[in-house]
Amino acid sequence: MRYRLFGRTGLRVSELFLGAMRFGSVDQARPIIDLYAGSGGNVIDTADAYGGSEDIVGEVLAGRRDRFVLASKYSLPRDPADINAAGNHRKNLRLALESSLRRLRTDHLDIYWVHFWDRHTPIEETLRALDDAVRAGKILYAGISDAPSWIVARANTLAEWHDWTEFAGLQVPYSLLQRDIERELLPMAEAFGLTVAAWAPLAHGKLGRSADTAVDEREHKVLVAVQEVARELGATPAQVALAWTRAHSRAVHPLAGASSPAQLADNLAALELELPGEAVGRLESATDFELGFPRDFLTDDFLGPHQLDGR
């Protein structure tokens, strides 16, 4: 296991993050977390909306919590009878955070993610509330999930101006079957130095299955390419799919969920798989993905024959 810095901070995080959404019991989670920790993994990612995941993680980490970079999220509805028990406003953040800390049996979170963009709450309010939580020592770093690139860019620019805590990470879906972040979100994250936690890197398991399970022609084409590359490299399809997310950008950390130690072991093996350039090209060609406007329009040739030297 190798490590990188989390965004523009000094926090060391492992190449692969462990998602805790699938945990259904302590007995299921303990051997998975033990294997992950034994392999050098240190980031465990959960959320208040993941059923009993926080309670399970809190119990499994009892006595060794500080060994891990513990992350959770807020935003999704917590109580259908309370209109303020959802969203990114200050009231919900405070109550959601206190509840997560109790369930996780800790006095602070290493990373607290805004779970999704709430268009009804000014981003300034969310940033200020997060900064207060950082100054109170209840969270150490902040991240944002499932938000437009312009919101994240505006947020971090405002935070820099006001000396508030900036978002150090971005959590978004990314896989061979869903490459949308390459249009705006991934270039923005790289420009701002954000760590990208890629959720659903196996497209909810599809990329680890047989091509016969594909529901449409595009999926079938991608699954066939993944399986061909896997056979050539002596790897599993899941390992190829995970390795591709890492090959495309150093900012990306796959966020892999596992329901068993065997499944996690297969995912961890992807960290040692280096995809040849030809294989990466073949996989990407199978996706029929286009960046679209303005990325396809503003190419290096756009400036014409008198381009700047760039040195």
List the helices and strands and how they pair.
Elements (H helix, E strand, L loop, with lengths): L2 E3 L6 E3 L2 E3 L6 H13 L4 E3 L7 H8 L8 E6 L15 H15 L4 E6 L8 H13 L3 E7 L3 H14 L4 E7 L11 H8 L2 E5 L17 H17 L3 H12 L3 E6 L3 H9 L7 H11 L24
Parallel strand pairs: 3-4, 3-10, 4-5, 5-6, 6-7, 7-8, 8-9, 9-10
Antiparallel strand pairs: 1-2
Report a brief summary of the structure:
The chain is α/β, with parallel strands linked by helices.
Features:
311 residues, alpha/beta, TIM Barrel, eight-stranded parallel β-barrel, two-stranded antiparallel ribbon, 10 strands, 39% helix
Describe this structure in words.
- The chain has 311 residues and is of the alpha/beta class.
- The chain has one domain (3-303): TIM Barrel (Alpha-Beta Barrel).
- 39% of the residues lie in helices and 16% in strands.
- It is built from ten helices and ten strands.
- The strands form two sheets. It has an eight-stranded parallel beta barrel with strand order 3-4-5-6-7-8-9-10, surrounded by five helices. The protein has a two-stranded antiparallel sheet with strand order 1-2.
- Helix 5 (149-162) links the parallel strand 7 and strand 8.
- Helix 1 (26-38) packs across helix 2, helix 7 packs across helix 8 and helix 7 packs antiparallel against helix 10.
- It is globular and about 50 Å long.
- The protein starts with a strand and ends in a 24-residue tail after the last helix.
- The model has no long low-confidence stretch (mean pLDDT 95).
